[in-house]
Fold each of these.
Amino acid sequence: MSSKSLLEGKNIHFQYGDEVIFDHFNFRINKGDRVVLKGDSGSGKTTLFRLILGFESLQQGDILFQGNSLKDPKTIRELRKNSAWLPQDLNIGTGFVNEVILFPFTFQAHKKNKPHQSKIESTLWDFGLNPDEILQKSFSELSTGQRQRVGLAITVMLNKPFILLDEPTSALDHDSKTKAANLLLNQNNRTVLSTSHDPFWVERCEKVIDLNQ
């Protein structure tokens, strides 16, 4: 693990109406860290992701990516180009599974990482999914656990140095959780920021940021 900061929050204040979500909140994530955000519902886990990705605007304070402020649109573009983001709601596309998998690679930032069909199939196998059975199914027909594993497979294939995962194991059985942890948390050149209520996942992350404190 490097001591060089990848992402740093400084004196963040954010609120919705009268509800204060963050008040003088600070955090630091170094390159190579595996970080998990813990906290009760409404403590700000998903809000922090939205601030980091530029979907919400900071009200006070700052977030720095590689030393540059996310208040600058160029920095937000650089962060998005170098990151893969898997939301909890799993509404990641429509159509056949093969189409959903390939859709993120139509964007300019991801085109160079577009996987060959053999890579798609091997990655699905890594997550315990049979490509012969699943690729020509409608994504909407999959179970919640299957959709989550497809989303995690896409995240791996995007091959980005920074990964953001919102409750990545919420719909997985123990075997699938183990596969996900091995594939996502054991790459030394990757920084992972996640949220989770799952003790299995939390125990495998080396740094915990408790938003209830």
Amino acid sequence: MDLGLERAGWECRWQVEWSEWCQHNLAHHWPDVPRYGDITTVDWSAVEPVDLIVGGFPCQPFSVAGKRRGTDDERW
């Protein structure tokens, strides 16, 4: 999502990601963008206001490339 929006002219100001592996990957591509972990523990009053917030749920539990366990998957 971040890359697509950048290509459309938007600028990523911060990211939220709970997975350490995914955080590492995001840091590789956006080294200067602040990253937050668990969305439920973020102090949103201290986060820079933005015009657009984009998010999605984990696709792995639903992907045809996976086991498609849906809500029975621990990542749901």
